[in-house]
Every structure is written in structure tokens, then in C-alpha cells.
């Protein structure tokens, strides 16, 4: 199994949360690509596991966005609870409860026989998320909003072109941008989306999704924002998993234009 975290020393943290962190062992996540740092805190007698996400500059603002969205999700979907939050002029620290269960990627990788069950659970949970009333959500994550953010990232040289999917290997960020423009305009089917609905962000217990993490992009957008990312993740486990996911969600005829657009848009983040 791919190693997805490594033991590490505790980083510096603000005084008003550092006391909570005493006595834990630390491991740093090696999977996330947000630009911040994510740590798992574990092994403290009589205390629950926690996660700490921290970062500086623009990453600090993204962490603050996640904190606000986690508090909004409480009572709507199972997600980490906010156990502490500090933001100063240049950095932010978000302390969260750990999720039960096992990350969907880990479970599918370790137990191939469970893949159909996990795929069905991922689809069922996404239907539940997308059923949240749009008028209850104060956050916008539609493609117009994300295109503006993508343009800023391209101009600032922040896009990792070496990490593009195989279909776009060797492309520049500008080529991805230009290819997306050909697919516009899109007719959005607006729902409340997660924004990064990937196998590492969903936790499974007893054949059901028991929680979701990395909620910083939660907001109203076209449903293919989530469908495309999960479809792409499931490609690692074969086309049968991809097709089963879409069918279990309720997609009879795939909108290839939207699928392609959102896959390219995700390359820029």
C-alpha cells in the first residue's frame, strides 16, 4: 500500500491551541496538494485523534474558508468538527476532529473485493450532499468563480503542469485554459457541491460513507464538479468502477462536455 503519511516532529503552533496538542504523536500527510501542511495527531492517552491544518499567505485564507464551511456543514453532513482555529496576519491553524473509518482510497486499494460496495457508498453519499437545498447554502463555487481563480493561479505561475493527468501530459496551463474556453458556455445544473470529491477525502465504515474532509471548496456549482473528480479518481481502479459510480448516482447518459470541462478545470488547482 502506498505510504500516505510519515512521522514527524510537532511544528510551532499558537499558544492558545498548543496546550491541546501536548502529548500527541505527529504524522504529516504526504498526499494533499493544497500547499498547506496537514498533520495527524494520535497516541495521546485518553484523548481522541485530531488533525491540524496550517499554512501561510493565500493558504491561510483557504484554511479560514474551510473552517467556515465545516461549521456550516455541521448537522447537514458528517464532517470534522472544528476543535480550534487561529488566524493572524499571515497564517492560520485549523484543529479538527478525526473521522471514523478508513479513507475510500485505502479501502479500495487494500480490499479489491469491496470496491463495488465502496463505489455504491460514494454515489449514495454524493446524492445526499447534492440533495441539500441550494437556497440554504451561502457559498458559491460555480465554474465562473473558479475560472477567475484559475486565471489568477495561471498568471502567478502556481499551476503544477507536471501533475496533469495523462491525457494532458506535456500541456501548458495556457493550453488547458484555451481548451476549456472551447467548451463554454455551460448550462449549470446547480447543487451544493464538495468541490474536491476524491477518494482520499471520503471515509468509509461498515459499507457506508461516514464522513468527508477537505471542505474548503464547498459551495453551489454544477453537479459535474463533483462527479468528474470522483470519476477521474476511480479510473485508477478501472472503467467498471467509473461506470458503476455514475450508474449508482443516477447518470444514464454522461454529459461528456461537462465531464471534460471540469476535469480540465481541476488541473489548474
From TrEMBL:
Protein family per UniProt: Belongs to the aminoglycoside phosphotransferase family.
Record field: catalytic activity: kanamycin A + ATP = kanamycin 3'-phosphate + ADP + H(+)
Protein name in the entry: Aminoglycoside 3'-phosphotransferase
Gene3D superfamilies: 3.90.1200.10, Phosphorylase Kinase, domain 1
Keyword presence, Amino-acid biosynthesis: no
UniProt xrefs under SUPFAM superfamilies: Protein kinase-like (PK-like)
InterPro entries membership: AGP_Transferase, Aminoglycoside_PTrfase, Kan/Strep_kinase, Kinase-like_dom_sf
Domain Aminoglycoside phosphotransferase: 38-257
A Pfam family matched in the record: APH
UniProt keywords, alphabetically: Antibiotic resistance, ATP-binding, Kinase, Nucleotide-binding, Transferase
Enzyme Commission (EC) number: 2.7.1.95
